[in-house]
Design brief:
- By secondary structure, the chain is an alpha/beta fold.
- The chain has a single domain (6-180), classed as 3-Layer(aba) Sandwich (Rossmann fold).
- The protein has helices spanning 19-34, 47-58, 69-73, 90-100, 111-126, 143-154, 160-164, 172-181; strands spanning 6-10, 38-41, 63-68, 83-87, 103-106, 133-136, 167-169.
- The protein has a seven-stranded parallel beta sheet with strand order 4-3-2-1-5-6-7, with helices on both faces.
- Strand 5, helix 5 (111-126) and strand 6 (133-136) form a beta-alpha-beta unit.
- Helix 1 (19-34) runs parallel beside helix 2 (47-58).
- It binds adenosine monophosphate.
- Adenosine monophosphate binds at residues 10-14, 42-44, 46, 49, 67, 71, 76, 109-113, 116.
């Protein structure tokens, strides 16, 4: 069980093809804020990420954006946040987002979202953090990723416990419940040498 005050949300800077992605982003942003969870995200006012942040603010929640200087200059930073932290680059942003958060939620998105997911999942395996990661699915969007993760396990590249440590949720209530109930796996290198 873990106390969760703030949740980082990784999601698309585009809105995606299916209108349900936007509905899910609004529902998650709103539900986290209503549950008293602060929201941490990439700071932009575009696509699903902007929608999560706006929904969190509209529901009265704390929303902290962490954005690299180069993206602020392109004037796509959200202008109605509790706080916007401007950092020097993408690496610093991800470190800061992780430091500020007690959990990570991955909504539909593109390369940036996948990259953020894989980094925090890698860090979880190495024991760099002990925070839950939830894959939030909308109309089976993440199914191909789940299949790939199963293959990583069946082919001996990822320990089953690290696949099993990932939360899957399809609605906000399930998400909140599973985040709160989560227990951290033992880190990879605490297992016997050579095992995954
Ligand atoms: P993507 O999935 O490729 O659209 O990238 C979205 C993720 O990368 C978000 O979770 C952000 O943290 C980051 N990101 C990508 N584009 C932007 C942007 N224009 N403004 C702020 N953050 C962005």
């Amino acid at each position: 069980m873990s106390a969760i005050d703030r949740v980082a949300v990784f999601t698309g800077s585009a809105s995606g093809a299916d209108p349900e992605y936007m509905q899910a982003a609004v529902a998650v942003g709103s539900a986290l804020a209503t549950a008293g969870k602060g929201l941490v995200y990439g700071g932009g006012n575009v696509g699903l990420m902007g929608a999560v942040a706006s929904a969190g603010r509209e529901a009265g929640g704390e929303v902290v954006g962490v954005i690299p200087e180069a993206l602020v200059d392109k004037e796509i930073a959200h202008d109605d946040l509790t706080r916007l932290e401007v950092v020097s680059g993408m690496h610093e942003r991800k470190q800061r987002m992780a430091d500020l958060s007690d959990a990570f939620v991955v909504l539909p998105g593109g390369v940036g979202t996948l990259e953020e997911f894989f980094e925090v999942w890698t860090w979880q395996q190495l024991g760099i953090h002990q925070k839950p990661i939830a894959i939030y699915d909308v109309n089976g969007f993440w199914n191909p990723l789940v299949v790939m993760i199963d293959r990583l396990v069946s082919e001996g590249f990822v320990g089953a416990q690290f696949r099993d440590s990932l939360i899957h949720a399809t609605d906000p209530a399930e998400l909140l419940e599973k985040l709160t109930a989560w227990d951290a796996p033992a880190p990879k290198w605490s297992a016997p040498a050579g095992s995954v």
